[in-house]
């Protein structure tokens, strides 16, 4: 399943060069992941099972500058589920310009909130994550 989140670029997102500051993209990507989790029902499922996502790696490519007034479309989808981690692929497009502002690969582990340790991705957890790839 691919999820789309819309974000309007505001003045406070900009740097001295009048384009979106690189650090803001991390916030945009996080906002989109939260939207994906809310819309899929995963927030409730993870809370019920005492699990949380912990980001362990983000690789981001900055492609084209976004500027004030642009509407960004952030597309989020699962691309890989492994035994210990999973990867979410995200792409930030500038609406109406057919341009990719940034793209990223976000790797996370699932943390047991009681022990504070990462858990193996297996059984019901693996099935839950893999369903997103199949959709």
From TrEMBL:
<dbReference type="Pfam" id="PF13279">
    <property type="entry name" value="4HBT_2"/>
</dbReference>
<protein>
    <submittedName>
        <fullName>Thioesterase III</fullName>
        <ecNumber>3.1.2.-</ecNumber>
    </submittedName>
</protein>
<dbReference type="InterPro" id="IPR029069">
    <property type="entry name" value="HotDog_dom_sf"/>
</dbReference>
<keyword id="KW-0378">Hydrolase</keyword>
<dbReference type="GO" id="GO:0047617">
    <property type="term" value="F:fatty acyl-CoA hydrolase activity"/>
</dbReference>
<dbReference type="InterPro" id="IPR050563">
    <property type="entry name" value="4-hydroxybenzoyl-CoA_TE"/>
</dbReference>
<comment type="similarity">
    <text>Belongs to the 4-hydroxybenzoyl-CoA thioesterase family.</text>
</comment>
<dbReference type="InterPro" id="IPR006684">
    <property type="entry name" value="YbgC/YbaW"/>
</dbReference>
């Amino acid at each position: 399943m691919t999820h789309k989140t819309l974000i309007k670029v505001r003045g406070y997102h900009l740097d001295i060069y009048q384009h979106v500051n690189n650090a803001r993209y991390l916030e945009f990507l996080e906002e989109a992941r939260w939207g994906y989790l809310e819309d899929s029902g995963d927030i409730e499922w993870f809370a019920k099972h005492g699990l949380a996502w912990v980001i362990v790696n983000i690789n981001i490519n900055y492609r084209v500058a976004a500027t004030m007034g642009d509407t960004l479309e952030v597309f989020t989808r699962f691309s890989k589920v492994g035994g210990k981690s999973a990867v979410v692929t995200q792409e930030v497009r500038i609406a109406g310009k057919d341009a990719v502002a940034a793209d990223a690969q976000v790797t996370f582990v699932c943390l047991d909130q009681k022990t504070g340790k990462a858990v193996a991705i297996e059984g019901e957890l693996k099935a839950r994550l893999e369903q997103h790839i199949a959709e």
